[in-house]
Amino acid sequence: MDIKLAITVFGVVFLAELGDKTQLATLLFSAKSPDKLITVFLGASLALVLSSAIGVLAGGFVAHYFSPRLLSLVAGVGFILIGAWTIWQTAVPG
Questions:
Q1: DSSP state at residue 34
Q2: What b/e sequence results for 60-82 when a residue is b if at least 16 CB atoms lie within 10 Å of its CB, and e otherwise?
Q3: What is the pTM of this model?
């Protein structure tokens, strides 16, 4: 196991997930069912594990056809476009 890679992935994913809609949804489920926190935790954890597994499998598949550099470039441009669109939606009323 590549511990440096594991720590990098953990840090990036952990920071990306903080305060996102998944965490907020989990917070709301916990607030609605304070006596079933373990159930909420297990459901949310399994969902995140499954979604990560899909991402890993898809990434492995796509990497056979495209270079990691191209994938990083496309992902970076995608994030920039989403950020620009979000700023535009906030700045332009209506």
A1: G
A2: eeeeeeeeeeeeeeeeeeeeeee
A3: 0.69
